[in-house]
Amino acid sequence: xxxxxQSDHVEGNFQTLKDHIAKLSNNQNNILTxxxxxxxxxxxxxxxxxxxxxxxxxxxxxxxxxxxIKSDVCVLKKRIDELYAIVKEGKEDISCPxxxxxDVESCHSEVSxxxxxxxxxxxxxDTIRAAYEDVRSDGTPTEWAVFKFExxxxxxxxxxxxxxxxxxxxxxxERAFGYLRxxxxxxxxxxxxxxxxxxxxxxxxxxxxAKMSTDKAIVKDIISVSTLHIAVHLSxxxxxxxxxxxxxxxxxxx
Length: 254
Description:
Low-confidence stretches: 91-101, 107-118, 234-238, 240-254
Subunit structure: Interacts with 5-lipoxygenase (ALOX5/5LO) in a calcium-independent manner. Binds to F-actin with a stoichiometry of 1:2.
GO molecular function: actin filament binding
Keywords: Actin-binding, Coiled coil, Cytoplasm, Cytoskeleton
CATH topology of the domain at 122-250: Severin
Structural class: alpha/beta
Number of strands: 6
Helix content: 40-55%
Protein name: Coactosin-like protein
Subcellular location: Cytoplasm, Cytoskeleton
Mean pLDDT: 76
């Protein structure tokens, strides 16, 4: 009887142990299931955070673009106001018909209110600088270079050594800039001079005439060395090969 009782007791303990093992196994399975769910949630959370980060980056870019646009608009409005003042107050000494002035005032009013018209002048710095150095160099035959507008950009349109060809570069409906090397003085004292020419033809519009002063400043950022400076407006001045360029009576600023 004692043997049977001990056997029953062992079997009971063994059954209890099996039940505990089964519960532990079940709990382990539950933990693994919950871990898989947690892992899926983490992946979803990571995806959401990534999307949120992309949206923040997009908002930052838009904010930067907005600030840049606002800055460009301020610069544009300031430049338009300057151009308008030049035309209205006659700073370029241009006699404008009343219809042209009304057109300029209308253009100024519309652009100032909408700030949608781009008037920025570009510059082909590499070709202009190369032409400038070419004219100044004693090692090349180049005596002159001409810079004209291609759309909203100023480029080097021609260069050469014949003054007659230089004179042919300036048309009535164009704005242009020229850079010319001159030999000054007499046989006893020869001096090399450089002349900068700003040309405005008679058929150029009022708006483009008014822009000439600011566009000239852009070009002279590269054409920094010039002994003589000629501002040629309309057809009141003709470039002549025999002219004494150093004489103040000819309207030249030395």
